[in-house]
Design goal:
This protein is α+β, with helices and mostly antiparallel strands. Helices cover about 15% and strands about 10% of the residues. The chain is built from one helix and two strands.
Length: about 80
């Protein structure tokens, strides 16, 4: 599954402290190792696509007003 055993020189101070504490509890009586698995970097997400542009809706209300208001009618 891709793990490898760390050599003694690869252990961090934190791992050494954990192993020392485990030894105080008798957990060093059988072979124990620290292991590591290298992970590949997470790929960067591709940029978001441009939002679709909605074409303007022509004003069919017949009003001469040029304010940009849109007339909407509902059917019954």
């Amino acid at each position: 599954i891709g793990f490898r055993v760390l050599a003694e020189g690869e252990l961090t101070d934190g791992l050494r402290a954990i192993r020392a504490e485990e030894a105080q509890h008798g957990l060093d009586r059988w072979p124990r190792v620290c292991m590591r698995r290298e992970l590949s970097p997470v790929p960067r997400p591709s940029p978001a696509p441009e939002p679709a542009k909605t074409p303007p809706v022509p004003d069919t209300s017949g009003a001469a007003d040029d304010s940009g208001a849109l007339a909407v009618s509902g059917g019954a």
